[in-house]
Amino acid sequence: MTVLETQGFLPHIAFDSVVFGFSKGKLKILLMEYHDTGWLALPGGFVGKNEDLDEAAKRGLKERTGLDNIYLEQFYTFGNMARFRPEVMQTILAANGFHLDSDHWMLDRFISVSYFALIDFEKVILTPDELSDSIAWYEIENLPNLILDHNAIVKKALQTLKENLERKLIGGNLLPERFTMNELQQVYEAIFGQKLRRTTFQRKMLGLDILERHEKLYTGKSHKAPYLYSFRKV
Amino acid sequence: MTVLETQGFLPHIAFDSVVFGFSKGKLKILLMEYHDTGWLALPGGFVGKNEDLDEAAKRGLKERTGLDNIYLEQFYTFGNMARFRPEVMQTILAANGFHLDSDHWMLDRFISVSYFALIDFEKVILTPDELSDSIAWYEIENLPNLILDHNAIVKKALQTLKENLERKLIGGNLLPERFTMNELQQVYEAIFGQKLRRTTFQRKMLGLDILERHEKLYTGKSHKAPYLYSFRKV
DNA sequence: TTATTATTGTCTCATTATGAGACAATAGAT
DNA sequence: ATCTATTGTCTCATAATGAGACAATAATAA
After folding, report:
1. pLDDT tens digits for B19-44?
2. Residue among A51, A81, A163 whose CB faces B52 most closely
3. What is the per-residue pLDDT for A3?
4. 3-class SS at A106?
5. B144 and B45 in contact (C-beta within 8 Å)?
6. What number is the average pLDDT over the span B158-179?
């Protein structure tokens, strides 16, 4: 049964997720590419008639990334009329061989409840949905054009992430369990979009008393080996 | 034409507003009391089929408070199954003489896109809606039980307000155009829920270079008269 | 083995921000 | 003229941050 045949979703309500990952010093997000059209969009979906809104977002992420227990935060609901462009969805569906009546629920107006997720880049197993050719990582600094208002959604997600980063100390969710101080600093720099002072950053992070120091990491480079750290549990 | 006869709203989508005002040193919000039931709820409404989500929230506020140009911020969308309790709305409507079929759109599941507003307490002209006996101010520190998850909505609104207060300097929206430093401090204290140091607060506010100093305010009290301030435009 | 290089962890010192209070100025009451 | 409560501005101690110095060290080159 395809999503189109299902009668089990709430009309007019969708969710979209801005999934952040960090790799090679760059902040990236996941984008789907729809069949034939080449159009890019945020991963998202619909809400089951008997499903919690948050559960729907978690389910969607699990389907695309294979991950459970993701750091996930709802940040805004987009509901302007300007985002109602039924021809966009119609084109995407037509490229998949579906030709719907114009009163079909999927061609109706939708509001998008939007979430952002922070995940460990290395752990993801990407899986496209039935309408997409691919799902892949794109650098946040150099995003292509996305369908509808998805560029604005990403912009707001990044803004929210910036504002929350220090207060909530969530940056570590983008790294593996153990990481070096330099890696953590790179995450902060990528999100804030600016260089930070090494010694000040180290002093502040250690002073927060949230990091646990482990063994050194010998990378084979000819210089002093950095310690590995993890975030203190509870 | 009552809201019940209207076919012009999106199903499943509502908005609710936490309207903050400040008076006599206390932070307060607006609550509606439904006919007969005595039940209390946040002011809210539905979204027109051709209406922007934000516009719907503004329209609702205009109807209840008479105010335009309100500081209004969307902060969260509540969409758990637990908030789907059709008997609540049915009881409210029954108390107003409406007896709807159980498949009526108003008895369906709703998600609530929630906003908070900051307004000048003195400027409001309160107007109940067609299902309510009254709309009135209630102290945030001593709220009664509200229907559904509205207590949780208020809690989240207050939390968001706290988190945004310093970064966005929005506290002045709760005061009239001109105010004393002491009044501004009381607003901050009411929102943070704790006393602040007078001299430090004054120094910080003046140091931000966002206040304009005007004439003194002579209240008739036997002590030095404070200056009036306003927020610098642009 | 020893010198070299790049990076790390920690220290110092200057600058800025904040906490806590002192104190003179002053509007009205006594 | 004196008193009281509050305001605006200072001062000084303490804490946080900016900016850099410097020794430690892991691998490489000599």
Report:
1. 999 999 999 999 999 988 999 999 99
2. A81
3. 59
4. helix
5. no
6. 95
Place of tokens 């034409």: B1
Q: How far is the CA of A202 from the C1' of C17 (A)?
A: 20
Gap from B191 CA to D9 C1', in Å?
27
Q: Chain A contacts of B109, Cβ < 8 Å?
A: 10, 49
Distances A198 to A177, A181, B202 between C-alpha atoms, Å: 21, 9, 34
pLDDT digits (tens, 9 = 90+) for A94-138: 998 899 888 899 999 999 999 999 999 999 999 999 889 899 999
Backbone angles phi, psi at A55, to 5 degrees: -65, -40
Tell which A residues from 159 to 178 touch B, by Cβ distance under 8 Å.
163, 167
**Which of A11, A77, A163 shows the shortest C-beta gap to B77?**
A77
Predicted local confidence at residue B133, as pLDDT: 85
Angle at the Cα of A189 from the Cα atoms of A148 and A152, rounded to 5 degrees? 10
Is residue B71 packed enough to be buried (19+ CB in 10 Å), middle (13-18) or exposed (0-12)?
Answer: middle
The whole-number average pLDDT for the span B49-58 is 97
At residue B123, does pLDDT exceed 70? yes
* Under 8 Å between Cβ of B25 and B141: no
**Can you tell me the mean pLDDT for B35-60?**
96
Question: HSE of B30 in the Cβ direction (CA atoms, 13 Å)?
Answer: 30
Q: Which nucleotide's C1' is closest to A222 (Cα)?
A: D27
User: Per the structure block, which two tokens stand in for A161?
Assistant: 């992430």
CB contact set of B45 (below 8 Å; sequence gap of 6+): B14, B15, B56, B59, B60, B63, B129
Residues in A touching B11 (Cβ below 8 Å): 11-12
Q: Are the CB atoms for B109 and B84 separated by under 8 Å?
A: yes
In a mutagenesis test of the B interface, which of A105, A111, A167 is the best target, namely the one with the most B β-carbons within 10 Å?
A: A111
ipTM of the complex: 0.94
- Within an 8 Å CB–CB cutoff, is residue A103 touching chain B? no
The token pair that represents A133 in the structure block: 């050719």
Tell me the domains of chain B and their CATH numbers: 9-168 (3.90.79.10), 175-231 (1.10.10.10)
**Partner residue facing A11 (CB), from B11, B113, B167:** B11
